[in-house]
Each structure stands twice: as structure tokens, then as C-alpha cells.
Write a structure and sequence with these properties.
Elements (H helix, E strand, L loop, with lengths): L2 H9 L14 E8 L6 H10 L5 E4 L16 H9 L3 E4 L5 E6 L5 E5 L9 E3 L1 H19 L6 E2 L8 H9 L3 E2 L19 H11 L5 E5 L9 H15 L2 E3 L15
Helix pairs in contact: 4-5, 6-7
Length: 257
């Protein structure tokens, strides 16, 4: 994704949340979207080592293993994340990026995977709900547990009509805060890991929701191996705590319904 597009995504991000718990200087909410899954195990191991619960958004994306992230081969991986207490939400089954509102209440998307990959399709709100729920159905097959009632639109692109479709389907949309844009999908030549890490450590504050991918095909120097551990350690040294969206003041109520 080009930097100008990344800036556009920042404009669609959510507003920073409320203050953190009393023993913390602030709470940061780490969120992970599926991708190539090249960093999946590293991310899981790092979170476990730091005793951090985070939030994951799942789509059925092609992985570096040659399979897809919601194939049966990933069952053990997702079961382990459930057991660790992470929040798991929908990212649409086919990673369908919103393009625009269509005529007669339709919504136009460009799926990244599935039978319509790379093509523009028009869906009703009900059909979009089926995309969200299809992740839930597969997740139940893999883990025996339903998704949490949150979703993230691929690329963060939404409209009021799309957000309403998500709410009608039972899912609250979660973006990310401007400081929470990790930059892991940008060119590593133009935006090296050291620059992105220092930006995050300088700008992140309590209430921020951080966007990280579980592997990006296009980035030559992957973000997570170099940056995830020092990002967590650096924020901990600044007195920050971590929590899932279940504890986020803007989303806690949706988990109680």
C-alpha cells in the first residue's frame, strides 16, 4: 500500500479511548489482522511471553504455507489463541475491501480471495452479513467457539451504510487510532523498521488501538521480527499496560449483550 493510501486509512481510524487502569500510565490495545501468516507463530509466542491478551481479526487469506488462514490446518493455532483469552473478530471471509455505496442500498466491494477475487461485486447488507458470519461459522468448526461481536473492514474502508450493515449483523466495527498505524504494510525501503518503531514509541499513548498484520506479502523486511518485541518492551518501560477490546471503554458494552 502506498503512503498516500495509508494516510487515507488514518483518516478513517477511531478516536483514542478513555484513560487506563489506575496502576498503569495508560492502556494500549494491540490488534492483529490476518495476512500471509508468516509472522503468526512469532506474534503468538511474543504475546504469550509478555502475558499479553490482544485482539485478532480473521479473514480466509492465502498464507505462506500455501493454504488459507481458516483452513483446518490452522485449527490448533486458533484454538490456542482462544485458550489464551484473546478477542477474535471477523475481517470478512474473502477479505472484501469496500469500494463505495452502490445503487438501491447495495454496497460495492473488491474481494481479495474467493470466487470473485479481484473483481468488483455488489452485495446487499444481508449478503455482507453473510461474509461476516461465514468467518464465525468456520471459526466454530475450527475451535468450537463463536467469534466475539466485533469486526474490522479490510483496509479500514467504510461508509455509514456499511457500518449500519455491520451493526444490524451484530458486530461493532473497530478501526485503529492514528498513532496505532504500525506501518507494517508500507515499503520497507522507504519506511524501515527502525523508523516505524521509533515513531510508534514516540506517539503511542493510553487508549490507542494498534494495527498490526500477521504477515504482509509485499514488505521485503517484515515488521514483526524486528519491531514487535521492542515495541512491547518499550511501552512497558513507559508504564503502559495492554488489554483486549473487551476492556476498551468504547467496546466493552458490546461484549455484555
Amino acid at each position: 500500500m502506498k503512503f498516500t493510501a495509508a494516510l487515507t486509512l488514518l483518516a478513517l481510524a477511531v478516536t483514542p479511548a478513555a484513560p487506563a487502569a489506575a496502576h498503569c500510565k495508560g492502556t494500549v490495545y494491540l490488534t492483529f489482522d490476518t495476512g500471509s501468516q508468516s509472522q503468526a507463530e512469532l506474534i503468538a509466542d511474543t504475546l504469550k511471553r509478555h502475558h499479553i491478551q490482544a485482539s485478532f481479526f480473521l479473514a480466509n487469506e492465502k498464507t505462506v504455507r500455501g493454504d488459507y488462514s481458516l483452513d483446518p490446518a490452522w485449527s490448533a493455532f486458533w484454538k490456542a489463541r482462544v485458550a489464551e483469552g484473546h478477542v477474535i473478530g471477523s475481517h470478512t471471509f474473502d477479505h472484501a475491501v469496500f469500494v463505495r455505496d452502490g445503487a438501491d442500498g447495495q454496497l460495492v466491494f473488491k474481494p481479495g480471495f474467493g470466487e470473485s477475487a479481484g473483481k468488483q461485486v455488489s452485495w446487499s447488507a444481508r449478503q455482507y452479513c453473510e461474509q461476516l458470519q461465514r468467518v464465525d461459522q468456520r471459526f466454530v468448526e475450527l475451535t468450537g467457539r463463536h467469534l466475539d461481536p466485533v469486526w474490522r473492514a479490510p483496509a479500514g474502508r467504510t461508509s455509514p451504510r456499511l457500518l449500519e450493515a455491520g451493526r444490524a449483523c451484530g458486530y461493532a466495527h473497530v478501526g485503529w487510532t492514528p498513532a496505532g498505524f504500525s506501518g507494517d504494510e508500507l515499503s520497507s525501503e522507504k519506511y524501515p523498521n527502525t523508523v516505524l518503531l521509533q515513531k510508534s514509541l514516540r506517539m503511542l499513548k493510553g487508549g490507542d488501538i494498534v494495527l498490526i498484520h500477521m504477515g504482509i506479502w509485499s514488505r521485503k523486511d517484515p515488521w514483526a521480527p524486528a519491531n514487535l518485541e521492542p515495541l512491547i518492551s518499550g511501552l512497558e518501560q513507559k508504564g503502559m499496560c495492554f488489554a483486549t477490546l473487551r476492556e476498551h471503554p468504547d467496546y466493552a458494552s458490546v461484549f455484555k449483550k
